[in-house]
Amino acid sequence: MRRQQRDSFPSHTLAAGYRCMDMTVAESISTGDERWRAICERDQSARGFVYGVLTTGIYCLPGCPSRRPRRENVAFFPDAAAARAAGLRPCRRCRPDDAGLPAWFEGACRALAEAGASVAAVAAANGVSRSTFHRTFVAVLGLTPSAFRRAAKGARLRDALAGTDSVLDAVFAAGYGSQSSAYADSAAQLGLAPGAVRRRGERLSLWWAQGESALGPMVAAATREGLCLLEFLDADEAPEVRVRARFPHAALQAAEAEQAQLLAEAIAAVDAPARAAALPLDVQGTAFQQRVWTALRTLERGERISYSALAGRLGRPEATRAVAAAVGRNPVAVLVPCHRVVGRDGSLTGYRWGVARKQALLAREEREEPEG
């Protein structure tokens, strides 16, 4: 696998509904309109098809950085084999034939995520050498198999802590052999001891409000410590449903004067991004996610940065995919300016709340006068 082609792998590789290391599955795109939108947005996480340009005889991945073709010249194919059967040849820029995952990879991810599975046993069960197993995981996910396994165990611990009153029971249910190892993993991944994670979940109270911005309807939520959610809403979407989806166990309360003012200021910050830095945040995430989000807040207004450059700034140049996953999990639009992350060629790539909004936010920042 070519190192320079790591970004062509889909960043979400596990089966639908499965969550691990804060990477959720990208559903296969099936309709023509969705596929064309993925091509226009150069969405590197889009799955389920390749597209062919009939005038050039070339087929590409949805995230290909090449010039966008005319819609009438595009044909969709379920996979590279179907495109080749139609007489097309692979693109030399996105290399669609190099983007497929080994047949054993998804099953290996599932096996490593199960309590008790060892790296050596899973590699042997799939008939793969340890060196090939290791290289493949690093190439696809930017993680070693052992790091993937630890992250999966940490995810099980978080789930177990949410469902029991006993930290000890949660530790053993997650597959840890001792409390000390569980505490070490929890501190590394969450920045908190298991008991603190459980207590925080029990006591989380939120206030929320909806409002209109120049870029569409939004919902904001806050704890007493600061803002924990700011997202654009889909048309006719109930804001409380969005808050519940993010914080299923939280107690939602009517906003008091102080919280109501904060929530209103958060939504207003979309129209005046210069105010975002002054608003208090209480965003929850793993220790690595917190590092990524903090780094994003240090970017100058109007500054743009690529995923790989952001990884390098964190001292983790090999962790481009993990950085991209953390950027995608940002819970507070604009306040943590994930819209400033672009492709290596300067293209806007994807944005969870729509590339049109991303473009508008960046254009507005370029027009704003610096403070002072």
Description:
The protein has 15 helices and 10 strands. It is an alpha/beta fold and 372 residues long. A 4-stranded mixed beta sheet has the order 3-1-2-4. The termini are far apart.
Could you give a quick summary of the protein structure above?
With 372 residues, this protein is an alpha/beta fold. The chain has helices spanning 32-40, 80-85, 105-113, 119-125, 130-141, 145-162, 167-173, 179-190, 194-203, 239-246, 257-268, 287-297, 307-313, 320-328, 355-367, and strands spanning 50-53, 58-60, 74-77, 89-90, 205-213, 216-222, 227-232, 251-253, 305-306, 341-342.
Looking at this protein, list some descriptive labels.
372 residues, globular, 15 helices, alpha/beta, four-stranded mixed sheet, disordered N terminus
Annotate the secondary structure layout.
Layout: H1 32-40, E1 50-53, E2 58-60, E3 74-77, H2 80-85, E4 89-90, H3 105-113, H4 119-125, H5 130-141, H6 145-162, H7 167-173, H8 179-190, H9 194-203, E5 205-213, E6 216-222, E7 227-232, H10 239-246, E8 251-253, H11 257-268, H12 287-297, E9 305-306, H13 307-313, H14 320-328, E10 341-342, H15 355-367
Parallel strand pairs: 2-4, 5-8, 9-10
Antiparallel strand pairs: 1-2, 1-3, 5-6, 6-7
